TrEMBL record:
It is a multi-pass membrane protein. The lineage of its organism: Eukaryota, Viridiplantae, Streptophyta, Embryophyta, Tracheophyta. GO terms for cellular component: endoplasmic reticulum membrane. PANTHER family: RETICULON, RETICULON-LIKE PROTEIN B15. It comes from Papaver somniferum. Residues 61-246 form the Reticulon domain. This is Reticulon-like protein. It holds the Pfam family Reticulon. It comes from the Eukaryota. Keywords: Endoplasmic reticulum, Membrane, Transmembrane, Transmembrane helix. Its main location: endoplasmic reticulum.
Amino acid sequence: MSDPTVENAESMMDKITEIIHNHEVSSSDSESESEKFLPSKKSRLFGRQKPVHHVLGGGRSADIILWRDKQTSASILGGVTVIWLLFEWIGYHLLTFVCHALILSLAVLFLWSNLGSFVNKAPPKFPEILLPEELFVRAALSFRFEINRAFAIFREVSSGKNLKHFLMVIAALWVISVVGGWFNFLTLFYLVYLMMHTLPVLYEKHEDKVDTFAEKALIELNKQYAVFDEKVLQKLPKAMNKAKKQH
């Protein structure tokens, strides 16, 4: 004859085990359901993994571009804008501008050096400026590297091995030629500088929205290119082979 106390204890243990098992199952189900709604890792523009400040090189130059030092950034932008207005609207010429700037600087320094004793001011101290040779060597090497890379890209595109790169380069050159027809070189240079001085800081403030829009645009472009590749590009080699056979 079984002991009722033992039976009660066993039934109680079974209930506890069942409760624990049901809790584990429900918790695992809730975790799996919640994982479905977890946001995936957001892709950034141009595939970057680091902050914008670090991508721009960090340091003072990045601070100026991202307007961390507002006074310096505004001063540089204002100076470039004044120079552009002098050349574009007033009709100043580069050589005339350089000569007038040198004349004004030399006149001020000359008068300051000779009249400083009459106004109880020390004459200006002119520092000895020596440009380091290493700076020009590194600049020349960087320029040489960029030219060689441009020649390599030109050779790769013109070889006919990659039709996609060929079409991209042709489209980019065509867009640049159209934009270049709207402005002269000085205005185009100023607009490029203006975009470099304003777009990074705007992107940093709204990078989530820009990255989302860019990701959707890239997906749509890839879809359109896939359709174009299927209907046009893949048929070009066949048409060329048929033409060769006919000849």
